[in-house]
Structure formats: C-alpha cells, structure tokens
Write a structure and sequence with these properties.
This protein is α+β, with helices and mostly antiparallel strands. The protein has a domain of 60 residues. The chain has two helices and three strands. Strands 2-1-3 form a three-stranded antiparallel beta sheet, with helices on one face. The longest helix has 10 residues. It is globular and about 35 Å long. The termini are far apart.
Length: 90
C-alpha cells in the first residue's frame, strides 16, 4: 500500500455484496460511496455506489439480502479511495 494512503477511518462493516458494479472493477481507484446504518446498529452497514441517494435506496430495496438488514436513512455519501477490487462468485 502506498505510504501516502491514510489516515483511515473505520465507518462500519457490510457482510455481503455492495450495490452497484464499480467496486467490482479492478481499474477503479476512487468512487463516491453511499452507506447507511441497519437495524443492527450504526456499525453494520449497507454500502454501494449510485448516482444519487434515491438511486442508492432503489438498489438496496431491489437486493433481497441487503433489504432484509433493515437499513434506514439518512444515507451518507463520501468520496473514497478504492484499494483493490471485490471478487464475486457466480
């Protein structure tokens, strides 16, 4: 990891796949991320990429796994550096 990376802030954890395809693209180095807390507390999140907050919520609502987590707003948006890409098993 480059030494100029950081400081890092832990915002929470998502056990599952985020919404949007950007985080699966290994050429992406930065993205606007959206996240929101779930009914399990503020450190358990739904996370993903979308053009705006209403698009983010539509994607979360359309995802059966994320929808069951009881996410609630408001969602937070922040530009983030992407270190590596996710791999999705099909």
């Amino acid at each position: 990891m480059p030494s100029e990376c950081g400081p890092f802030t832990f915002i929470g954890a998502l056990e599952g796949y985020p919404v949007g395809d950007i985080l699966f693209d290994d050429t992406v180095t930065a993205a606007e991320l959206w996240w929101a807390p779930t009914r399990y507390g503020p450190r358990w999140l739904v996370l993903g990429t979308a053009a705006d907050e209403s698009s983010f919520w539509r994607l979360v609502d359309d995802d059966d796994d994320l929808n069951t987590l009881g996410a609630h707003g408001p969602a937070t948006r922040r530009r983030a550096t992407i270190i590596g890409a996710l791999a999705q098993d099909n």
